[in-house]
């Protein structure tokens, strides 16, 4: 079955090129030009993914996400203009899954959509499977034994480092905001924790032998948060 | 004179009165005693004259002289009249027949007495007036002298800050007291404050008195009806536009200001006001000039940008229209090439717009830096991922120290700096060039370096690299042409963070751009080693 994509953007030219590129990739596509339509179409057509522009004319994008999250768990990919970092973080904290900054390349967009949809399908089945080992590149993580290997060599992580890594793995491909990570690991948001998080990430990255010029596993989104790379 | 601190006001007042009375009585006794001594002296001299057979008129003259000398000494009209009367009586008592009585036989004497009294009192009046006028003139001259000196100093000041300092110092010298000079700006905000001597002006009570003076434009503090308990006398500095400031004179040493001192203050305050207004005008003018300059710069920038934007736009429009109108006739390869060109030009425009946006953020004077604790390596990784494209044939490497370097910066802007520097390195060097990014912490500075082993920059271009719109003439290897915005934006961003940026050629060939950012004050906080 073809996945159904809802594109919500007030610019007609952007909607049309998105529609064309999505349809050539085998997605079905419906369009919404304002927040009200977005909410209506989400509930009536039940799309598989929503591509949402934060700057809709009638309802603020973050509010759209909040309202949607009350009734649906539909994956949301945000598209926003640069320089709106705070909005982006707000939207992610409100429940959006990922973001792209305008202008973006179509190939990047398609890649993100694929990641989101795949994660969605894994989530649907994982409850039955209970995967205990996770593999990405040379990195292997055994969730039951709480052990981590890089190729054949075992690496030793502190409890917090392991927790961060496990959190990233749980949400592989998704951008996790600083706030989300800190609240999940340290429990509450204290100003100093930002520093703890940076240090923790730096140490983790060193232990994973990341190339600083081209991180393989943990990708930084400046001003927003972190994500675990997707294969 | 009253050194002891008296607690209640009534006690203070009554004791003051008591001392005043005591003072008065003692002066009276002193004056009368002086008078009798003087008259006794005159009598003695007269007796000596009489024994030697002098004329009676000599004796009258001696008394008159005594009266004049006495008047000069005491400078009081009342006492000189008294002295004239007593002088006549002494003369009558000692030197007119019958001697040692106040009676006279010769009927001519009463006229002599009358004339003697009139002449005595008249001359002493004149003497007193002359004396007071002389001293007044002297004092006035002294005042003019110091006024002139102060004015000369005031005219020489270069800022309202130094004006406050100079006036406080001069007034303190003049009054030998603690002096506060406080200016207020147009919105009533305290601006320049200077205290010469001990600073008791910071007390709440004193501050209240000072603000009351500013708001009411009346003199306040000690010796006035408003805040009489305060330790200083405050007077407003009034200019054309209302109250500009307040002068406070500490009165711990002398109890009240004399009328002369008041007059002096009244003269000097408007002078300070004039100078202050002049300084304010000058500062305002300077500000306007800067604004005009900024406006001009903005216009220049817009003009240059519009020009730069037109080039890629022409190419985009040309390519697009060619495809639209010749869709059927043009081969697919050409169509593809044109579309590639459109894409490339558009992404160039996008980068340009990015820089312009960041530039306006910096240019508006108030730079809203979004400071956050960032890790240097994350910023570098982000910048590299931004410029790295699969088609790119440059070799980009990053060198990080073992310690994590944390710094408080605007992550997006610093990333932009690195993106610009890397973009330049890619654009102005041939394919295969090695580009390396490194970061290091040396003492209190975090040093970033972007270097390449490309051809380097010509010596003529090097000093102008950070000038806005200076697009170098060096050979361009990449698809993009320079805008002359990138490096000047980098400079603005780094300077907004309190850092420095410079560019050099390196041996044997290549370029290195280095920028330093100040590290956090606490060095233990900024780097945390892996071992922890």
TrEMBL record, chain B:
SUPFAM superfamilies per record: ATPase domain of HSP90 chaperone/DNA topoisomerase II/histidine kinase, GAF domain-like, Homodimeric domain of signal transducing histidine kinase
Pfam families: DUF4118, HATPase_c, HisKA
Record's keyword annotation contains Metal-binding: no
Transmembrane intervals: 29-49, 61-91, 111-130
Keywords: ATP-binding, Kinase, Membrane, Nucleotide-binding, Phosphoprotein, Transferase, Transmembrane, Transmembrane helix, Two-component regulatory system
PROSITE patterns: HIS_KIN (PS50109)
E.C. code: 2.7.13.3
Locations listed in the record: Membrane
Span of domain Histidine kinase: 304-521
GO molecular function annotation: ATP binding; phosphorelay sensor kinase activity
Gene Ontology CC terms: plasma membrane
Topology relative to the membrane: Multi-pass membrane protein
Swiss-Prot/TrEMBL catalytic activity: ATP + protein L-histidine = ADP + protein N-phospho-L-histidine
Gene3D superfamilies, A to Z: 1.10.287.130, 3.30.450.40, Backbone structure of the membrane domain of e. Coli histidine kinase receptor kdpd (1.20.120.620), Histidine kinase-like ATPase, C-terminal domain (3.30.565.10)
Name of the protein in its database record: histidine kinase
Biological source species: bioreactor metagenome
Name of encoding gene: kdpD_7
